[in-house]
Amino acid sequence: MDKVIKTIIILFSTLFISCSNDETVVIDSENNKEQTTDFGWNYNDISTVFDPQKGYYIPTKKLQEIVASDQVVQVRFIPGVIENKLWVKIVSLNSKEEIIGQFLVAPKGTDDIKSKLVSIQSKRFNKNSEANKIVASHILQPNEAIDYLNSWGRKSTTDIDDVTILNGERIRHYSLSPVVVRHMANQPVSTIYLSWGINYENKLTTVFTPIENHKINLFSKGSNRERENAYIYDFSRPCPTMCDIGGDDRIGG
Q1: 78 contacts 105 by C-beta, under 8 angstroms
Q2: Most buried among 20, 136, 162, 219, by the most CB within 10 A?
């Protein structure tokens, strides 16, 4: 890990970095606009860094921390290359595109998420029953998630540009409304598992699944003590083409 930490220090010039056993790296907030869009992803041969067998364990506590401020208007998931591994930096931003909070997550071994999804593939989320329409617009059905992961598993790294380029430019980051991220973060699980997938437009996308004790947890207890659904999430906004921090009419809520 020493070499990784040195690399991160050089890349980000941060004042404080700490690394935990789960490979989550906390970085001091630094209002550097370049850091909110890319960190090496566009300057590397990414065919060597993708591993369909690896995903990202995102601690819900860290998500809660970076969206705690009511100034947050967007959360970005930014892929980047460190020591030939594809990390993801998660950044919350205000309306001036200044960083509110951020942390890095390293790729780790698979949690066999695909087989877990297969076990619930007949389940259907009722989007109309979700009171928050912003959250409802990001719900991904289990069978769709399986399709995304299967398509990604079949993709050869030699044609990775086919799925990572939009409008002639490599996708720089994916964004979500803080409303959706808060919903994810407030589930009674310790981890949101981020997988890569290929959507029905044949483009790389994100799949977020709530995980607890290596099991998918799709139920949470509401404030009224009734059962309410947690979800699998996607429909994050890729940049390009949706790069404007004020361009998502689903930010509010």
Answers
A1: no
A2: 136
